Amino acid sequence: MSEHRISVDIDEAGVATVTLDRAEKHNALDGAMFDALLDVTGRLKTDGRIRAVVVHGAGKSFCSGLDISSLGQGGGAESLLDREDGHRANRAQRVSVDWAAVPAPVIAAITGNCFGGGLQIALGADIRYAAPDARLSIMEVKWGLVPDMGITQTLPRLVPVDVAKELTFTGRIVSGQEAQALGLVTRAVEDPLAAALELAREIARKSPHAVRAAKRLYDETWTGADASTALMLESELQVGLMGSANQLEAVHAGLAKREPRFADPE
């Protein structure tokens, strides 16, 4: 898929490494990159082999945001606002929010610049590891715009509204270290890609049905769900897991003190 600006590698453990592959432009988002991201999330959400996903940028940066010059020269900027049948989000928003539709956990490994739309892609991941010297910004105000790539569905889970406003009103750049302190990223680590892959492989050793259920549980209840709905979902998911093949395998492997052998979801 490199011709579409994205490469995907799936290892034997079921860890998918997704590489934004436009290093010469710091992986800036042009029309082809938007198309590739939507294609990738569409494929990953239906692939039962996938136990965890790591997203990172080739070269120096995760993603420097929109390629304004490309999108403004007949690059299809208007089409990014289209909402296709069956989708609540438009095409621009889906490159962030569609990561939630991937049942497996998604980990973003952030280095270099992570600006504007690039940051919103990272915010769509379940977990974010950033280099201490990475540069992150909700940068849209610089161009006289508001962030509009799904940030209303991601940022409220991470930071208080005053922090969100301060970052959005100013567009200031924060380091990976400060981003961790603010809650924008999960951890600041020297080698985000290596750390993300290590975490992904640890997750891949757990029951994929349990991990997927846990992702769904938090995604559907963390903000906005009333208590009765959230508690009911806990029970429904648990009943679906209890006595299943992978749940019994987890118990048997634990009692036998051996590595479990889990089946992929269908």
From TrEMBL:
PROSITE patterns: ENOYL_COA_HYDRATASE. CDD domains: crotonase-like. InterPro entries: ClpP/crotonase-like_dom_sf, Ech1-like, Enoyl-CoA_hyd/isom_CS, Enoyl-CoA_hydra/iso, Enoyl-CoA_hydra_C. Pfam families: ECH_1. It catalyses: a (3S)-3-hydroxyacyl-CoA = a (2E)-enoyl-CoA + H2O; a 4-saturated-(3S)-3-hydroxyacyl-CoA = a (3E)-enoyl-CoA + H2O. Belongs to the enoyl-CoA hydratase/isomerase family. It comes from Gordonia prachuapensis. Could possibly oxidize fatty acids using specific components. This is Crotonase/enoyl-CoA hydratase family protein. The keyword Methyltransferase does not apply. Pathway: Lipid metabolism; fatty acid beta-oxidation. Keywords: Fatty acid metabolism, Isomerase, Lipid metabolism. It comes from the Bacteria. The keyword Lipid metabolism applies.
